[in-house]
Amino acid sequence: MSKIIAANFKMNQTPSETIKYASEFLNKKQNFKSKVIFCPPFTSIYCMAEKLKGSTAKIGGQNCHFKNSGAFTGEISPKMLKNSGADYVILGHSERKTYFDESNELIGEKIKAALANNLHIIFCVGENENERMQNIQNSVIINQIKNTLKNIEKNELKNIIIAYEPIWAIGTGKAISPEQAEEMCKMIKDFINKNYNHGQIKVLYGGSVKSGNAKDLFKMPNIDGALVGGASLDVEEFMKIINAAENI
Ligand code: PEP
Fold first, then answer.
1. Could you give the number of structural domains in the chain?
2. Contact 226/241 with Cβ under 8 angstroms?
3. For 147-186, what is each residue's pLDDT tens digit?
4. Fewest C-beta in 10 Å: which of 26, 110, 163, 223?
5. Residue span of the structural domain in which 44 resides
6. How far does residue 23's CA lie from ligand 1's centre (Å)?
7. Is any ligand 1 atom within 6 A of the Cβ of residue 98?
8. What is the pTM of this model?
9. Are 197 and 154 spatial neighbours (Cβ–Cβ below 8 Å)?
10. Is residue 228 a contact partner of residue 6, using CB atoms and an 8 Å limit?
């Protein structure tokens, strides 16, 4: 099964830096067996989409509003993302929840609006360190899924990918073990299958994925790929992660 490897650049790179990155990346490879998705900042989406034309790599946003237009100063709509060349959008990232107070309900509205604009969703869920220490990670994640997806129809799930990202592993270098990640991804799939009668959901792992741990994560049967933050900013390192997925 081909894997999905998504890059979350977070708030890094100017448009000219993204163009340089994309040139270096394409010099190495243009077509991929796996699904490669770049999520640069909004200001780099259009130029990166133009640059990647002819490659199989896709573009995504890191957030969007739940309306297509209107008096929402500073916001970007899902319609704008789509028109700029994006096919995906990350929603529910823990940094949006922590720093911008996004609730599960708000994320649910954003997902609905993004789906209506033919965007695919990378929907992030994950427990914090305290919740992991209390061993309540399964119920925390199930509640996030239930509360966020409560207005999502079963037929919309085919356009949603879940990214399991334990918050304590994001940007910390403390990746979860492949066995623990596998257990969580399987738990999420079983929950979606049982409660939404949808057996095809893809679940990615995210949190300190690097070339050094990618292969062991990708060997796991229920890990369908990775959402990669910091390590995606280095072309060589990100290419090694993609190659690890393609050589399984
Ligand atoms: C992320 O931001 O989604 C992420 C997984 O970051 P990192 O790979 O840097 O931990």
1. 1
2. yes
3. 999 999 999 999 999 999 999 999 998 879 999 999 999 9
4. 26
5. 4-246
6. 23
7. no
8. 0.97
9. yes
10. yes
